[in-house]
Amino acid sequence: MDATRTSPGDPDAVPAVAPRGELAARHLAMPAHTNPTGDIFGGWIMASMDEAASMTTTRLSEGRAVTVAVSNMAFMQPVKIGDAVCFYTNVKRIGRTSITLDVEVWVLRHGYDERIKATQAEFTFVAVDDDGRPRQIKPGSTQ
Known about the structure:
Mean pLDDT: 88
Number of strands: 6
CATH architecture: Roll
Number of helices: 1
CATH superfamily: Hotdog Thioesterase
Structural class: mainly beta
Helix content: 10-25%
Largest sheet: 6 strands, antiparallel
Strand content: 35-45%
Shape: elongated
CATH topology: Thiol Ester Dehydrase, Chain A
Order of helices and strands: EEHEEEE
């Protein structure tokens, strides 16, 4: 899987496909988020993807929802200190009690430079009641 990238004025740059879905969260990659090799730790990226997906799912389901599955996780490019890390969520399907989202992570190198798709995955959530049992998603609440 190749990452798509753009760089202003670079004739060799591959035109980027725009991120799919809505911007759900944005973070600045900091030194505290690095792994021993100096890149941003994949676990931090995955946790941030889950948080972004959770915010979208909570709004769509109008209440509490829990992560039940993550699939097709692909780390395509490293994330570096100083990158603006943008998390996009796109609804894939809505069931009676569950919502599945595609989550894409795009970075702006140094917060302004080259735009790169770094990571993607599919997250599935189940809407739950106060006792943690699955609850039905209200029809029409997903608009």
